[in-house]
Each structure stands twice: as structure tokens, then as C-alpha cells.
Amino acid sequence: EHLKTEEMYKDFEYSEDLPDNSELKLLQQQLADKEREKSKIEKMLRELENEISEKEKALQDQLDALGDLEKRLEDETRLREELEAELDAKDRELDRLNEVEQRRREAEAEVDDLRQTVQDKANEVKDLRNRLAMMRANSGPEVDHLQARLQKKEDELEREKGA
Description:
Blueprint: H1 2-11, H2 20-138, H3 142-162
């Protein structure tokens, strides 16, 4: 600033054409103009500094908000991964339950088949008893043969029931 003032004085060195007082007044006027201009520039600089400060604050607020969003995203990602792991576990459990249900159905079908076999054998035994009763009524050597077959079928029936 001091150098600027010196330069200004050099530009307006004493001139023979102007009286001393006029030159001094001109220099004073120019100095006052320069001071006003300097004041305006300083004011503009302060305004720019304020604007920069506001923009920096806004930027910092946005950076803080971005940091919060990044943390939230991490939390949401972790939660999603946990839920996916739970879902996978539930899927595996459902698969196991479906396998158990399938084995139960198969076992029920086997039991139903065995029940039918037992019922068929019981019907055969009943038939044989009826035939035996009719044969006894008629008597003869076939009675012993039929009684042996009947005993054999009853034994098979007992084994089937035991299974």
C-alpha cells in the first residue's frame, strides 16, 4: 500500500504548469479516489470471503450428510446380508421339513400296504376256516390238510402283524 502511494506520487511529480496548491489538491483527490476504490475492493473481498465461508459451511454440511448416508447404507447392507442369511437358513429348514414330510408319506404308504396285506391274509384265513368248517361237516382226509394250511396262514398273519 505504501509502495502504491509512492508510485502515485511519482506519476504526479511536480509540474511547472500547475501551481503547488492545485497539484496537491489533485493528488489529494486522486488519493481519496484510490482510498474509496480500495475500500470498495476490501468490501468486495469481505463479501467474497463471507460467501466462500458460507459455501464451505454448506459443503461441510453436505459432506456430513454424505457421511451419515454412507453409514446408513453400510447398516442397511449389513441388515440385508443378515436377512439373506436368515432366509437361506429358513430355506434349508424348509427343505429338511419337506424331506421329512416325504419320508412320512412314504412310511404311511408302506403301512397302508402292510394293512392291506394283513387284511388280505385275514380274509384268506376266514375263507379257509369257512372251508374247514364245511369240510368238517363233510369229514374226510382233506380236513387235516386244510387245518395245516389254516395254521400256516395264521402263522404268516401273526408274523405280518408283528412286522
